[in-house]
Write the structure tokens for this entry.
Amino acid sequence: TPGPGVFLPVYLDGVIPAALARGGANPSDGSFWLTMKRLEQAAESDFERHVPVLREGFAGFEEKVESERLRVEAQAAEAAREGDADLASQLVSDFMARTFEEAQRRADDLRARIAEADFAVSAAAGRRFASAREKYSSRRSQGTPSADRMQRFVA
């Protein structure tokens, strides 16, 4: 995926996961939409650096979902052919619940990884700035020629 999105099948014959029903005008915690929105916002801090993290985080998951999807759909179709609509519905409902729970967990983990990476970059930048400021201050206090010229220029 190019961004934080991931393909997750939804079956109208099943019970839609609660995480998809949460939200509305004021999204609430536990909402899958809000989880993915927060992940997207975290990634936007440095999209070029964070996209590989997102791809890695969802890579194996998408293949796992696809293979399980094929198996569950075949089982649900067989149950429906045998006249057991309740079993067919239960199979796809359970699959959706498992899939969305894992996707939500992965998204939360990825957001935490991105936040840690952003903090590390900010801390490193702060150290570089402090070091540069210290060098400039020590040159100035030592009366380096450039500092002396600057003082004469300003005076």
Q: What stands out?
A: The chain has five helices and no strands. The chain has a mean pLDDT of 79. The radius of gyration is 26 Å.
